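Structure tokens please, single chain.
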Amino acid sequence: MRTFFILIFLNTTCFIFGQEKGYIITFSNDTLFGLINNKNPLYLKFISNNGHKATYTAYDIRKYSLCRRIFESHFVDGDYKRYFAEIRLDSVFDLYYCRGGNLSPDFLNAYYYRDSQTDTLTLIHRARADVERFLITKLNLNEIQAQDLKKEDFTYYDIEILIERFRIKK
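Here you go.
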């Protein structure tokens, strides 16, 4: 019973303070472990294991990790700032998801792919035709697969499922 209350207390404190155990990797490849609060894609608050507090922007660190999720720092095409975006799929192309913060409404809670030549993230527009065109091009679908995709009933937020489904069929 006592253990149960301790677990509830620990979970509640993480929920209240919004901090999770994780690590950050700087651009000089130093790895620091501690507590991370990442409510904004422009910066994060960090408390190292030895108690040092710091705020890092997407210009200060290369990536960070929380609960097996990895966030990387990238420029977003059309906006000349660096943002933290979560890596969602690392396959034929890198798919990222960026949420909230100071982004304009078009960029909020949106999927991006990484342009390997410029290392910037490019927005995948929400219109169904844009999503279809993106998937057909990036997955190099043949005509039959493209027709199957067009018959699918999907929303913008099904991109990850569609990529996995059509990648397996190849």
